[in-house]
Amino acid sequence: MKSLALIVLALALGLSLPAQAGPNQAPFGDKVSPAITYYNRATPFVATSGALKPGAASELKALGFKAVLDIRGLKEGVAKAKTDLESVGLAFFNIPVVTRAPTLDQVKQFTAIVEDPSNYPLLVYCKTANRAGALWAMYRAAKGVPGEFAIEEGRTLGLKASREGAVRNLLGLAPMPKPKG
Predict the structure, then answer these.
(1) Got the DSSP string for 121-135?
(2) Which pTM does this prediction carry?
(3) Average pLDDT of every residue of the chain
(4) Gap between the Cα atoms of 34 and 81, Å rounded
(5) Quick check: 95 and 103 in contact, CB under 8 A?
(6) Cα(94)–Cα(71) distance, rounded to whole angstroms?
(7) Quick one: CA dihedral 7, 175, 146, 163, positive or negative?
(8) What's the pLDDT tens digit per position in 73-91?
(9) What is the model's pLDDT at position 22?
(10) Which of the four CATH numbers 3.80.30.20, 3.40.720.10, 3.90.190.10, 3.40.50.880 does domain 24-128 have?
(11) Which of 25, 26, 67, 95 has the highest CB neighbour count under 10 A?
């Protein structure tokens, strides 16, 4: 029932459900190696992931990515990632999300990057995809997607309970439901 609801939501939002990625699109997860952890395709042109392991920069370039948005803090290896990714010809952006939920200014910066077609396909990443999922949920809510649906999209992309409460608070949603049992 839940997957049917997600398909209906995708269709209602006008999202396409292509059989395979086309040119200048983010690949599906079966096309990436373990060097790109926690990978998910958010839209045909945007993907999210966790940590990038050795070899990921070359792989991203070979997969057709044009840009990477690193949302880790500056003390988390951003300078090395910038050097590695730019050395293979990828555009590099950084929005350091170091709080439980992204700030409204960070969502605004994210929107400018994620909505610029010259960055497609774009990979948004952090250590475990948790921040990527949080930022995606806030972005989608800012675009008018109902908050609970935006949270569900964020969870699909990596949002975990450790950040969800803060995101829900910023979106004016009820607190996270208590686990049963």
Answers:
(1) SEEEE-SSSHHHHHH
(2) 0.86
(3) 90
(4) 17
(5) no
(6) 6
(7) negative
(8) 999 999 999 999 999 999 9
(9) 59
(10) 3.90.190.10
(11) 26
